[in-house]
Amino acid sequence: MRWSAVAVVVVALGWGCKKSSEAPAPPATTERPTPNKAAVEISILYGSEKKSWLEEQITAFNAANPTIHVTGKPTGSGEAMTSILDGTEKPVIFSPASGAYVTLLNQRWQTRDNHTKPLAPTGEPLVLSPIVIAMWKPMAEALGWPAKPLGWADILKVGADPKGWSAYGRPEWGELKLGHTHPEYSNSGLLSVLAIAYAGAQSTRGLTAADLPKVESYMAQVEDSIVHYGKSTGFFADKMVERGTSYLSAAVLYENLVIESYAKSPSPPLVAIYPVEGTFWSDHPYSVLDADWVTTPQREASAKFLAFLKAKPQQERALALGFRPVDPSIKIGAPIDAAHGVDAQQPQTLLEVPDGATLDALLVSWRKTKKPADVIVVFDKSGSMKGEPLDEAKRGAKAFLHTLDARDQVSLLFFDNNIYPAFGPVEVGKSMAELESRIDGVSAGGETAMLSATAKAYDLLSSRGKASAHRIRAAVVMTDGADNKSTVTLDELTKKISGESRTATIFTIAYGAQSSRDVMKQLATAGAGSFSEGNVDSIIQIYRDLASFF
Q1: DSSP 512
Q2: Is 546 exposed, middle or buried (0-12, 13-18, 19+ CB in 10 A)?
Q3: CA 531, CA 536: separation in Å to the nearest integer?
Q4: Where are the alpha helices (DSSP H) in 31-174?
Q5: Amino acid 71: pLDDT
Q6: Alpha-carbon torsion angle 328, 204, 176, 507, nearest 10
Q7: What CATH number belongs to 372-549?
């Protein structure tokens, strides 16, 4: 098997497994100096997975280099790519989690506006972290780990068995619950879908667009175990540790996030499964954009910052944070070890990232095979929503609908002091005009029965049974005020929507300064969803972001 250039770098490292001595301390925290007015400004838009490491290094570099001033913005790799393409971000340096997004960026850049050359050079890798399936240790052991190498076939076997974990003697775990991020927003999501496609094709390289229709059935079977998607790999890592085995059985993460989880002493602990069918390195390339907004002094300053990041002290700090350094002189040791749920000798099989056209075709196949959703939009129309808050909330809800897949089903449940009969479920692709008309027709008035409305939405989703058994079932609840008319208490509702018997996920939005943030956080936690807060300026983007879960 011919390995990619990144893999060659990895081989050169020599995975020596001696434990390193004490992990190097981070640079001394220093107040960021006021930048010299004549300093060269360079901006880096980077994958948020390396935020802890890169923020430290930016601070240290700026303190030592007064003629250069670096600013960094962490964001999801897919979101960063989109913001560059639409012109909302114009960074000097693009550093996604994987070179796959450099390939995809160039593919889309060159197929629009008649661009004749790539925007982003391949770039040098900064740090390395393999894509892994993070699983609770007892669950991995039930599948035969560590003696048996595990992979996507094992995930598929548990997910496809009607008995779920009962077939392995653990009925208390219920069915297999899998999570990976949305591939159009996040690198780990893109690479996990690509790995699933390779597993279906039973190959490790040379995947083409022509191969994808043959593996869509396999992809759909794996995706059927998804609890929900998401925008952030870190969200899954954090929530797995916070919520335990009732939330997810496994999630596609980076190896460094499994290592990070041990700082929170999860019980049981997480372990990293390196799929036997193959996986990818997240190589975190450092690409100085070939764009008209990047000047020669900025290119020179970027080269100095790159040299700083690849120097031994910075690479040793990356190792201490759970990344594999690209400096071959640094031996791999703790925390990349069994004590932190990972294996320095893995991955054994690497997969090839195909060209941009194939990646675009992969996303088309994923949209066909992704698990569809059954979503109830729970919408506050109480009197406090009058005016601009209601207008912007309507726009946000409609933006949410337009981000969903045509196969997704949506219901609308409006409330004030009353809970109005739900409209739906209807398929988004067939009923968009009617859904938008219902939203536009709402007027504000009355008081607030948010808890009762949430309970009603949950009961509706639960009652659908087999009709939505192969859908992501969720309620998206938005309110701008304190509940004052519900007939159900917060304690009663959180008990209903939590635990192993949970039948739907609850996502909440606290809208405006008067909303009950603590209550909405508790509902999202009990319902294994996410909590967002916003105002008239941010509600549209909040709704769009929530669509990444479906």
Answers
A1: S
A2: buried
A3: 17
A4: 51-64, 77-85, 99-110, 137-142, 152-160
A5: 98
A6: 70
A7: 3.40.50.410
Element (H, E) at 92: none
Cα dihedral 145, 151, 154, 155, rounded to 10, equals 110
Distance CA 443, CA 382 (A): 9
Confidence category of residue 35, pLDDT binned at 50, 70, 90: low
Tokens 């009607």, residue? 162
CATH for 5-12+35-127+284-329, among 3.40.190.10, 3.40.50.300, 3.40.1160.10, 3.90.1210.10? 3.40.190.10
Give the CATH fold of the 129-281+354-368 domain.
D-Maltodextrin-Binding Protein; domain 2 (3.40.190)
- pLDDT by residue (tens digit) across 144-202? 999 999 999 999 999 999 999 999 999 999 999 999 999 999 999 999 999 999 999 99
Return d(Cα 293, Cα 538) in angstroms, integer.
28
For residue 36, give both structure tokens: 């010299």
| Integer CA distances (angstroms), 461 to 279, 333, 377, 408, 548, in order | 36, 48, 12, 14, 20
